[in-house]
């Protein structure tokens, strides 16, 4: 289940309120079991295990990304989904990421404190997270990741059966993403320089 909440008020008020809520949850992990929390400029997103199709899409992408990074020197890069990141002061928990662990930043309260070493973030949308994953209505994750200098951001938009690739941020902004239909091969540029097969997603969206 993935839930989100948004509240009215000034940006300063909301930021302070969200910070208090998240500090309280950090201090009392027994309240939330396996739920982890993302923050946005307008709300908090509570993330817990999603549906089976969502997981199968993630697993299919993980297998292909592991094959891609296997071409690099042993241990240089890895594919994971077991960390959250602080990005521009907000908490983000990508569905997948590719990272150079030799450049991993320090962790605090279960979150890596910046995006050092991150080459790629991946999100597979769910109803409650789609707007922030795509940056609909506010900059969302594309805005935060571009401002932080994340080279590549891949989004599987289940609602519209498409894949969007944001890349090469300049002046802290991604240009318009490259859009692919599900079933098309997605080209991942350097340092990957490989294609990602999306045919397997056709029966999962």
TrEMBL record:
Residues 31-179 form the Putative restriction endonuclease domain. InterPro entries: Nuclease_put_TT1808, Restrct_endonuc-II-like, Uma2. It comes from the Bacteria. CDD domains: DUF820-like. PANTHER family: SLL1072 PROTEIN, SLR1083 PROTEIN. This is Putative restriction endonuclease domain-containing protein. It comes from Yinghuangia aomiensis.
């Amino acid at each position: 289940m993935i839930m989100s909440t948004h509240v009215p008020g000034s940006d300063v008020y909301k930021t302070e309120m969200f910070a208090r809520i998240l500090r309280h949850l950090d201090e009392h992990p027994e309240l939330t079991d396996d739920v982890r929390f993302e923050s946005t400029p307008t709300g908090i997103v509570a993330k817990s295990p999603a549906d089976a199709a969502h997981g199968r899409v993630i697993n299919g992408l993980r297998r292909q990304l592991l094959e891609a990074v296997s071409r690099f020197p042993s241990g240089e890069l890895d594919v994971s989904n077991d960390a959250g990141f602080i990005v521009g002061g907000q908490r983000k928990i990508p569905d997948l990421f590719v990272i150079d662990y030799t450049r991993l930043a320090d962790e605090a309260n279960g979150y890596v404190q910046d995006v050092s070493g991150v080459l790629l973030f991946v999100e597979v949308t769910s109803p409650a997270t789609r707007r922030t994953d795509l940056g609909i209505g506010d900059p969302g994750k594309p805005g935060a990741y571009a401002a932080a200098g994340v080279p590549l951001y891949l989004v599987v938009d289940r609602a519209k059966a498409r894949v969007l690739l944001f890349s090469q941020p300049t002046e802290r902004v991604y240009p318009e993403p490259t859009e692919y239909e599900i079933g098309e091969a997605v080209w991942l540029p350097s340092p990957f320089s490989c294609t990602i097969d999306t045919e397997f997603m056709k029966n999962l969206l």
